[in-house]
Model the fold of this input.
Amino acid sequence: MSLNKEAININFSQGLDQKSDNKQVQVGKFLKLRNTVFNKGGKLQKRNGFAKLTQLPDTTYTGITTFNNNLTAIGPSISAYNAGSATWSTKGTIQPLSLKTLPIVKNSIHQTQCDAVVSSNNLVCTVYTEVNASSTSYKYVIADSLTGQNIIAPTAIPVASGTVTGSPRVFLVGNYFVIVFTNVITATSHLQYIAISTANPSVKTTAADIASAYISATTLSWDAVTVGTSLYVAYNTTSGGQAIKVTFLNATQIATGGSPASPVTFAAEKAEMVSMCVDTTSATPIIYATYWTTTGTLFKTLAVDTNLATILSATTISNALTLANLTTVAQNGILYTYYEIAQNYSYTAVASNYTASVTVTQAGSVGTPFVLARGVGLASKAFILNDVRYVLTAYQSPYQNTYFLLDASNSTSAAPKVISKLSYQNGGGYLTVGLPNVTIINDSAYIPYLFKDLIQAVNKNTNVAAGNQTAGVYSQLGISLATFTFNSDNLGSSEIANNLHITGGILWQYDGYLPVEHGFFLYPDSVVVSTATGSGSITAQDYYYQVCYEWSDNQGNLYRSAPSIPVKITTTTASSTNTINVPNLRLTYKISNPVKIVVYRWSTAQQVYYQVTSINSATLNDTTSDFIGISDSLADSTILGNNVLYTTGGVLENICAPATNITTIFDTRLWLLDAENPRTLWFSKPVIQATPVEMTDLQTIYIAPTSSAQTNTGDIKAMTAMDDKLVLFTRDAMYYINGTGPDITGSNNQYSQPIFISSTVGSINQNSLVLIPNGLMFQSDKGIWLLDRQLGTSYIGSPVEDFNSEVVSAKSIPGTNQVRFSLSDGTVLMYDYFYNQWGTFVNVPNISSCIYNDLHTFINSSGQVYQETPDQYLDGSRPVLISFQTAWYNLAGLQGYERFYYALLLGEYYTPFRLSVSFSYDYKDSTSQVVTVMPDNFAEAYGDEANWGSGPAWGGTSESNVFESRIFPQIQKCESFRITVEESYDRTYDVPAGQGLSLSGLTVIVGVKKGYRVQKASRSFG
Done:
């Protein structure tokens, strides 16, 4: 039967469609579309290539951005690109890190000590000491470490008589939580344990002895460490004479509540403090027991193998140290000890402990001790992650108890390396009854900590005539779990006030010179003033002093800490000198460009705080010294006209920002999400010319999890500005805030309450947020969506639904109508918002991108940097090749019968190219035929034809650049067919990869048969 041939013209104006069933995709749409752009309607053109810039110094960089229009790479260090010399220069180091916290114990009773470990099935077992007016008890609780859901309620650890001494600790050994504690039985201290199954936490063993007679101490005269599936314990015992003994419990003993191995005596000395660790980098594990005793103030260490054979006999580290705390780690044959020394400022009774370090080799060689950090004590056991040593430390003062996580690999006290700040003003202070364990899982460290709730605050701005200030009233109510995730790939940055502000365990700032902490970790506290008579020009009256830390960045912005609490002194003679003793800011990265210590004075006769320290000869901070004494002998008339304390007039004081994982800019302010309270937003004071970003804890907004919603919408996960709104995302909901914020005094705040948008969709991906003329695009767990400017939502990404990898970068490309989403699987999605079409770019995998000199620029996981190069068609040295795959053409119906005669391609020729055209039939993905297409314009290399002169004239004969071709299929009769067109590149022709061609349309010549295709008998049923 003769069929009428029909020409089906298909223009290229509809882009990808992966939302529809691929057997029913509309004619004109594509199943695959690669390396094309839509600069002209209905026309496929090749995208630009990306030229390789100078490679970064290493592969550790995870982000790329711009600062002051200069290309800047971010990772464990910051590097700036010099376009003139095409080189990268390293500007300093930071620590990529994200912080999360989880409440574990919250009740009305004081907790004085805690320890915790996390199992591989995400359970956290926490042990603690609880104190009320009438008793002290040991307890444990088991919870989900991800959600905080209680698994086992707080349960008393069994002790014989209720007598509690020392502190309980918990260890993870195989599939068991092992809780070790002191049990006083008939006036004798027993070191005992119970084991709790991680698979079934309701199953636990009865209490069993590790040692039936040992000397307990509040500073813990024992410690333990897990090695494989055994728990090694070192303790101080009276059995057979005072000595240090070591034993171990293996997996079988732990499971049954059995007795440990026979202990081995290693030192006939008393130990008030013990720390254990294991070096797993040696051929066989080496177990260290380090201890300290008040007898002779001996500080010693010893080492054994897993069979308790001596590797290092008891070796003296020092015989002249009084320790307040001790922890150790070992690596590559070296023991690293970190110890806390208790002390006060010499001018006051306020404690100012410091943490020091010393090494011991496996052979017993003791290194030179040095101060790791002044002003902080130990708050956790030391740990090693990715070959770097860390330790959590505690700062204690009447006003600012805070934890600081330090890079303990640092070998100098001049610049203590703080990588995270935790629980500012709510920390537990110095720990005196044992240090909590640290659990390492992949790149995360889990550390429990004591958290103090503020009951009554101090009003630091109280009228100075009211008298001396007092510390706030705190009640220690809880235990929380901190999770520090290192080498986080989610570093975010915001450029404002001529600085780049970078997220992490602290808020970093980069001013083009060095990265440092934003602001100041602490303000000056424990300031004390004394007076001397007989010299100076201070007259008899009341004076108040306040002190600030101040610092100027490389852009000339002046940063000021919160002022100290006002300190009063009354002079009684007409010629006095006052000495103001001020703690140095010992925790800071601001070393080469040091912090200034600035004193301001108020008097009865001159009731304004004027600066009394010299402007021209500044008093500089010294991180190697605890405090500095500053003399003031100036008369009121002398300081009149000096700088005034910036809080004068009710200006809000500046407080160091918390750890944050998300920042953005809105209403000329920096906004950030508090990592410890991920529904609390901080916003800065307004940023004006020549001022830095100034944060204060008095400017926060809390987003209630049930705001305008019937269910808990979860934590804030992403945020950005759109027009006059700050849009906030949770996983499944959206909110916005609008209005203008308060002035520098906190007055005239017109920010709205969080306004609910929708609970249909949300986002957890800050990197996916990008503005287009129609609104804000974002990635949700349902794909890529659009929040339009009328706050309606639409599923704009349905055509690329199959590309569901995480978006690592989203950028709107200048000079085009394109948005490009870089995915974690290496694909780049291209959306043209003028034509509302999607395509993909391949062979340009990247982990972060930015716009530099108005061009799309990215880095990949190998530290290679690429930048888009207009009118060039190489990705590095790799040619850009276009390809597409049509929908299934079933013109006679879904299961009809048709004849496919041939196909026609129409386009334009630019440079030599080849096409591979392949055909698939009847909904089968396999390829049945491949045809190579070469245009007339493609002249083969001169002299390459079989018979010289048989080919086209050298250089081509075409009179125009129109490209047309006709392709015949080998199979005509079919139910459906699909065409795949791929540009190929053959180096044998020695032609440069170039623009190749553009395509304007595809025409298929078909004939439709009546009826439906007959099925095989094997496919027929009934």
In short: Residues 847 and 861 are 6 Å apart (CA to CA). Residues 462-468, 952-958 have pLDDT under 50 and may be disordered. The longest strand covers residues 997-1012. Helices lie at 251-256, 636-639.
